[in-house]
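Hi L.,

As promised, Amino acid ABC transporter permease:
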Amino acid sequence: MDFAGAFTPDNLLFLLKGFGMTLVVAAVAIVLSFILGTALGLIRYSRIKGLGMLTMLVVETIRNLPLLLIIFFVKFALPEVGIQLSTFWAAVVALTLFEGAMISEIVRSGLQSVNKGLVEAARSSGLTQAQTLRHVVLPIGMRRMVPPLVSQFISLLKDTSLAVVISLPELMHSANIVYGHDVSYVFPVLLLAAVLYFAVNYGLSLLSKRLETNEGARRRTPGAGRPAAPAATAKAQA
């Protein structure tokens, strides 16, 4: 183990640049997968005839495929039909598709967890289905989704390491290059990579647990999460 040789200023800068790429890819994929997952989850929750079944088929297909296969498909198979993506966007698109399918289930479950009595009360007070979704179901459901969403985002950040197979210059790719120069660099370089991943993921994990605790306390509080005056909301929308 050669810590001094592995952690020269140039090597450290190279590794940190790789970690920066990891964070950028993760951030872009988190935003896009959340948008995609929310849209798919809403479609499945709304049970739109035909479209709901098609969405379920797409989601279940993606969820049951290895992420590595999706990465290879986006990077190497899509060009065969004229869709050429850079390595960066191939990684982002693959992560977005895979994580979006996972997030859609979180969204659907979160919306379905809302007390049906609240939904019926909102509808009977004059709210339309769209108004009920917007003013009753989404506000309550989204709060309950936050902890599992954070956990899914942690998984997404870890999954970025699979992009090493298409030579995305993220942390693991940079680590491979550094310790490829000298076998004595393997342990210190991988240790640094582990520390960087752990620091970010553990911070997100603590956030997830805190949010879960807060949501549990909210559920135990009588009346918590109930929409205020749905009838008034309906009048305001009229």
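The chain has one domain: 3-237.

Thanks again for sending the construct details.

K.
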